[in-house]
């Protein structure tokens, strides 16, 4: 491991400062100038909830919201979105409680193995933010870029519809029909 | 606290406003009863069987577990117990394991289909700054493989590479970039050999077979496994045959397409033990293989199963990259993480075998299936993997749900220079099932009867035996067929829809756990073991090795424990990730987990239940059999006010011994015949399913759109209907991919052309039909609370249902999956030419006028329905062997009553000239019988 000079096959790019508002927190890290957003989020910003499925924009597992718009982080240059607002699956929860979309995915079988789930959640939350009354067709168009191999999408669509009903105020926030799930973030004893 | 001490309370903006009570917020009255609800829930009579005094209907009769039902969770739509981790991004998959000081591994792969490795020079890679470890095949020469009989894999190539992408060497470096550079700097000298890509050529003698099995090698061919099975009397068929079907099929290879690429992290801890993190369906086999390859005892390895981002059979082999990570980590003294690109996932493959299948079906005057012949040549790729079993499954899993007059199967699995095929959802049964169900549709057409009635009049009853001796217990096939017929409005649509629209039927039959574990030995180990532990807090910890791969096995096991002990699900915690703490479980394959693991868990829970009841009896001074368990309370049957809380009883039973511990185990009952291969396909129970699919075919382009599916699946008892429906719809999706768009395309030179999701077409949400899942509950006598599998069986019927629907739509059968528009359009235009039609829209839609036979079939199925319902409810417990429909005595084996009845597992010399494509593998001799012949 001595001697010869380091001859990179892949051109190494110089690192430069990258900053963004990740899930409401200002983050600043050093990242190569050609870094992919997915790598920065996973390896530098600690957002391991953003999943890497294909690296070429075909599976949708790495979907994140950039200024509220769902984008594939594996096809996004990190420095292109420097200074923007980025929301990953970790940023969906309302404070310490599950967002309706998360609760509905859990309750309606929208998540089986769970690997595609972060991408679906972000894509469907972006839809619901703009459109609280999506039709089945609109839901399908919102998640058409996301592959799920377990559920066959039907229970995912049902989960999104249920979450939309909560957003519209037509259904109670908590629809869980049994007490299997206590809150994942209990906020301590009530005084 | 001094007076001037000021403590600011933290922000508390997150108090829930929805009123949901949160665990940890409640003060329980000492000694408390645990759980997040202060009040005991009332006994939920809707989920207590009617024969036990509840309101849950039991059309299929009683079950031995009925008296342990407490109405807590079994049968209720239950979110997965790990769903919250998944929806918050906290679930840790393979690549999410980040250990301190980790380095990144990369694998050097073969660029050639088939070559001798002459030399490997790693000097340049080792000299690259940042490279920590390099390894090649000489570091780990031991062979491994998932089946003990076919260990043919190495961690990295030893002497030969067998397909493009085969592992040659590996490197570990400080970061991915350096590791990739180092991998490119490894110089390998190859001598390229003649590669084989066409499985038909695998049947021929060659100079240099892909593997060499010494005295057991079949000639000098590339045949890895051959099977011959003959049951009954085929010779006499010609005289009685009224309708005959001969279908020749080609099936392309299919990949599992799980969304999580393989990833592994290996770390030798400070005590020199290997901690291996991997998304494995079958951690125990990986554990065994690691011990062999690394030459360390099993107890010095801890296999930690991460969350598994989809498996479907594709993560059930012990993998070479797992060995590589361990070898690199051992050399480097640092944790090594290897994550695959999507392309590498396709090189590893283990997907469904590309197959050539020929099916021949004879039906006699009474529309009974007198002859059933299957020939399956399957393309195994470079390694054996599960292929030994697949070779059998392609035939034997077709022997039900129909009663057969005779059965003949010849199968062969050949090695080719492609990524290895292996086990994939519906292992080995899918392709043959498609061929035979389409064959039955054709037979119905020829006999001019309704294909559903044809099936209904030929079903094996519950509690019967198939022609090859599989013991069928519960059987909901008939209800499944009736329900989809009704749901789809079949009678109004079949052969009545306009051109371009069609409806079709398909059935399925699958094992619920394989009868013999892959690693069996003289010790009679159980297939599944579950440990329960309850300490003073009242929470139940379930230790199990069962691998939850998203199907919800952890939820199922938590449910059955909660059900027996009448505890809220939140008080049951499943610990299943580490081999250090989990008892051995054989893993998530062959749809065995719910059946076996839940049975083991029930056994353990019953032991705890007895202790709790005895303790409660001691406190109350009542005999324990007069007590009832309900939500966190145990009370007197006749007067519910006399009782104790769960924690009171628990603390009483913990006197002097501390935490309650119980262990439960499951082994299959002894089953099966004595002929060679009799064990393949044996299962303690079988699932049945029937689907009706409706399609629209664009006759101008050949594009197929599946619009609706009615999917009935007999899962015995739906422990969790939400999960069962998820499995049914998910199976539909995967099967639909295989029948319409998914294929691994190998080019003219044998190169895999589409190792990515851009060109390997998995259906998106737009391609999904509207699926109506229909759960049939036949209450299996040996299943946990009556349950059977629901994960794989539901995939089988969708393929033939769609193919049959396409025929109903355009009157053309295409026997080459997937049914891509080019193939369908070619078939349409051929038909147009033949019938001299210019506009495809003028093609005649298929129509059917029923023959006299139709009435006969309806009458027969009505009689059989009565018979089946009596047998299901055990009102008739007489034996029923396949063959009764053909006039045989049900109490005697057929070979004792019919002189011409054959049972043979090897062709005799007169048969050798008359074998199907795969059957020709039998014309070769094994080396040990060749005595110097060339």
In CATH, the topology of the largest domain in chain A is named Ubiquitin-like (UB roll)
CATH architecture of the largest domain in chain A: Roll
Q: Please identify the top-level CATH class of the largest domain in chain A.
A: Alpha Beta
What's the number of helices of chain A? 5
Structural class of chain A: alpha+beta
CATH homology-level superfamily of the largest domain in chain A:
Beta-grasp domain
What is the number of strand segments of chain A?
5
What distance separates the N and C termini of chain A? 63 Å
- Helix residue percentage of chain A: 25-40%
Strand order of the largest sheet of chain B: 3-5-1-12-9-10-11
Shape of chain A: globular
User: Could you tell me the mean pLDDT of chain B?
Assistant: 92
Outline:
Chain A has 191 residues and is α+β, with helices and mostly antiparallel strands. Chain A has helices at 37-44, 100-107, 117-130, 136-142, 154-167; strands at residues 15-22, 25-32, 63-66, 69-72, 85-87.
What does this structure look like?
- The complex is a heterodimer of chains A (191) and B (934).
- With 191 residues, chain A is an alpha+beta fold.
- Chain A folds into two domains: 15-91, Ubiquitin-like (UB roll); 100-167, DNA polymerase, domain 1 (Orthogonal Bundle), CATH 1.10.150.120.
- Helices cover 27% and strands 14% of the residues of chain A.
- In chain A, strands 2-1-5-3-4 form a five-stranded mixed β-sheet, sandwiched between helices.
- In chain A, strand 3 and strand 4 (69-72) form a beta hairpin.
- In chain A, helix 2 (100-107) runs antiparallel to helix 5 (154-167).
- The model of chain A is unreliable at 1-7 and 175-191 (pLDDT under 50).
- With 934 residues, chain B is α+β, with helices and mostly antiparallel strands.
- Chain B has a domain at 528-666: 2-Layer Sandwich (Aldehyde Oxidoreductase, domain 4), CATH 3.30.365.10.
- Chain B is 24% helix and 21% strand.
- Chain B has a seven-stranded mixed β-sheet with strand order 3-5-1-12-9-10-11, with helices on both faces.
- In chain B, helix 5 packs across helix 6 (320-332), helix 14 (593-620) packs across helix 15 (646-653) and helix 16 crosses helix 17.
- Chain B is globular.
- Classes of the chains: A alpha+beta (191), B alpha+beta (934).
């Amino acid at each position: 491991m001595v001697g010869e000079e380091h001859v990179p096959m892949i051109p190494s790019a110089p690192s430069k400062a990258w900053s963004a508002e990740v899930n409401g927190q200002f983050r600043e890290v050093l990242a190569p100038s050609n870094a992919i957003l997915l790598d920065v989020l996973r390896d530098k910003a600690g957002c391991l909830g953003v999943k890497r499925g294909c690296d070429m924009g075909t599976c949708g597992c790495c979907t994140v919201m950039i200024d509220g718009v769902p984008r594939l982080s594996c096809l996004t240059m990190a420095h292109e979105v420097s200074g923007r607002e980025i929301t990953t699956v970790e940023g969906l929860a309302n404070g310490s409680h599950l967002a309706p979309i998360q609760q509905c995915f859990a309750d309606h079988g929208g998540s089986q193995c769970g690997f595609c789930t972060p991408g679906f959640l972000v894509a469907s939350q972006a839809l619901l933010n703009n459109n609280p009354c999506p039709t089945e067709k609109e839901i399908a168009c919102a998640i058409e870029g996301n592959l799920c191999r377990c559920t066959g999408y039907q229970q995912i669509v049902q989960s999104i519809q249920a979450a939309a009903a909560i957003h519209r105020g037509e259904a109670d926030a908590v629809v869980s029909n049994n007490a299997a799930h206590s809150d994942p973030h209990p906020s301590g004893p009530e005084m | 606290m001094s007076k001037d001490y000021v403590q600011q309370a933290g922000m508390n903006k997150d108090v829930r406003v929805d009123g949901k009570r949160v665990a940890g917020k409640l003060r329980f009255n000492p000694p408390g009863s645990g759980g997040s609800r202060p009040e005991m829930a009332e006994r939920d009579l809707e989920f207590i069987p009617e024969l036990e005094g509840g309101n849950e209907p039991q059309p299929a009769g009683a079950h031995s577990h009925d008296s342990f039902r407490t109405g807590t969770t079994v049968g209720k739509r239950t979110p997965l117990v790990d769903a919250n981790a998944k929806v918050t991004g906290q679930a840790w998959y393979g690549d999410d394991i980040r250990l301190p000081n980790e380095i990144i591994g990369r694998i050097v792969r073969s660029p050639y289909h088939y070559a001798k490795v002459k030399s490997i020079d790693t000097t340049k890679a080792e000299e690259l700054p940042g490279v920590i470890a390099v390894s090649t095949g000489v570091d780990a020469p031991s062979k491994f493989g998932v089946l003990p009989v076919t260990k043919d894999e190495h961690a990295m190539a030893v002497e030969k590479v067998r397909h493009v992408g085969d592992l040659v060497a590996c490197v570990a470096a400080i970061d991915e970039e350096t590791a990739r550079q180092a991998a490119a700097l490894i110089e390998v000298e190859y001598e390229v050999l003649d590669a084989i890509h066409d499985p038909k050529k695998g049947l021929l003698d060659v100079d240099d077979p892909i593997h060499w099995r010494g005295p057991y090698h079949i000639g000098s061919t590339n045949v890895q496994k051959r099977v011959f099975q003959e049951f009954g009397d085929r010779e006499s068929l010609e005289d009685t045959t009224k309708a005959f079907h001969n279908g020749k099929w080609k099936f392309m290879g299919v990949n599992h397409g799980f969304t999580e690429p393989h990833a592994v992290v290996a770390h030798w801890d400070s005590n020199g033990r290997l901690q291996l993190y991997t998304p494995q369906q079958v951690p125990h086999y990986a554990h065994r293989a690691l011990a062999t390859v690394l030459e360390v005892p099993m107890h010095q390895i801890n296999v930690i199963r991460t969350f598994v981002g989809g498996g479907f059979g594709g993560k059930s082999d012990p993998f070479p990259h797992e060995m590589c990570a361990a070898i690199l980590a051992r050399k480097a003294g640092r944790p090594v993480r290897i994550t695959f690109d999507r392309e590498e996932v396709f090189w590893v493959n283990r997907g469904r075998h590309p197959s050539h299948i020929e099916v021949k079906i004879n039906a006699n005057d009474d529309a009974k299936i007198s002859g059933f012949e299957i020939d399956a040549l399957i393309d195994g790729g470079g390694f054996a993997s599960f292929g030994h079993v697949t070779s059998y499954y392609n035939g034997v899993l077709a022997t039900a749900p129909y009663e057969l007059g005779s059965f003949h199967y010849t199968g062969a699995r050949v090695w080719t220079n492609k990524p290895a095929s292996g086990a994939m959802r519906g292992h080995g049964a899918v392709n043959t099932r498609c061929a035979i169900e389409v064959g039955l549709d054709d037979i119905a057409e020829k006999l001019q009867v309704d294909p559903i009635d044809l099936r209904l009049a030929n079903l094996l009853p519950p509690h019967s035996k198939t022609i090859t001796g599989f013991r069928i217990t519960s059987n909901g096939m008939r209800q499944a067929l009736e329900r989809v017929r009704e749901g789809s409005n079949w009678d109004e649509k079949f052969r009545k829809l306009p051109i371009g629209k069609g409806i079709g039927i398909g059935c399925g039959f699958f094992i619920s756990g394989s009868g013999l574990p892959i690693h069996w030995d003289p010790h009679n180990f159980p297939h599944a073991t579950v440990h329960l532990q309850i300490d003073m807090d009242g929470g139940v910890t379930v230790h199990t090795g069962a691998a939850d791969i998203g199907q919800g096995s952890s939820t199922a096991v938590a449910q059955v424990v909660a059900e027996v002990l009448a505890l809220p699900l939140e008080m049951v915690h499943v610990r299943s990730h580490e081999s250090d703490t989990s008892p051995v479980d054989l893993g998530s394959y062959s749809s065995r987990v719910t059946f076996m693991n839940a049975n083991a868990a029930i056994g353990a829970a019953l032991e705890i239940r007895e202790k709790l009841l005895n303790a409660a009896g001691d406190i109350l001074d009542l005999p324990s059999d007069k007590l009832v368990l309900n939500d966190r309370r145990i009370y007197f049957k006749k007067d519910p006010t006399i009782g104790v809380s769960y924690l009171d009883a628990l603390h009483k039973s913990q006197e002097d011994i501390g935490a309650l511990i119980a262990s439960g185990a499951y082994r299959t009952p002894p089953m099966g015949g004595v002929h060679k291969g009799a064990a393949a396909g044996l299962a303690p129970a079988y699932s049945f399913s029937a689907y009706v699919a409706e399609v629209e075919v664009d006759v101008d382009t050949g594009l197929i759109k599946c619009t609706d599916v009615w999917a009935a699946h007999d899962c015995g008892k739906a422990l969790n209907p939400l999960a069962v429906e998820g499995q049914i719809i998910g199976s539909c999706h995967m099967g639909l991919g295989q029948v319409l768009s998914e294929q691994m395309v190998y080019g003219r030179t044998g190169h895999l052309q589409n190792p990515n999701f851009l060109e390997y077409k998995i259906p998106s949400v737009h391609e999904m039909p509207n699926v109506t899942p229909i759960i049939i509950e036949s209450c299996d006598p040996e299943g946990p609370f009556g349950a059977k599998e629901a994960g794989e069986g539901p995939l089988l019927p969708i393929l033939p249902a769609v193919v049959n629907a396409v025929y109903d739509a355009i009157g053309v059968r295409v026997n080459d999956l997937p049914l891509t528009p080019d193939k369908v359009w070619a078939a349409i235009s051929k038909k147009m030419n033949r019938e001299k039609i210019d506009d495809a829209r003028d093609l005649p839609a298929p129509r059917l006028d029923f023959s006299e036979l139709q009435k006969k079939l309806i009458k027969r199925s009505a009689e059989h329905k009565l018979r089946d319902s009596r047998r299901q409810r055990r009102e008739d417990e007489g034996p029923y062997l396949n063959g009764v429909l053909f006039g045989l005595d049900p109490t005697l084996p057929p070979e004792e009553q019919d002189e011409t009845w054959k049972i043979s597992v090897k062709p005799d010399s007169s048969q050798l000239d008359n074998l199907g494509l795969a059957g020709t593998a039998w014309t070769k001799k094994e080396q040990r019988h060749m005595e110097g012949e060339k």
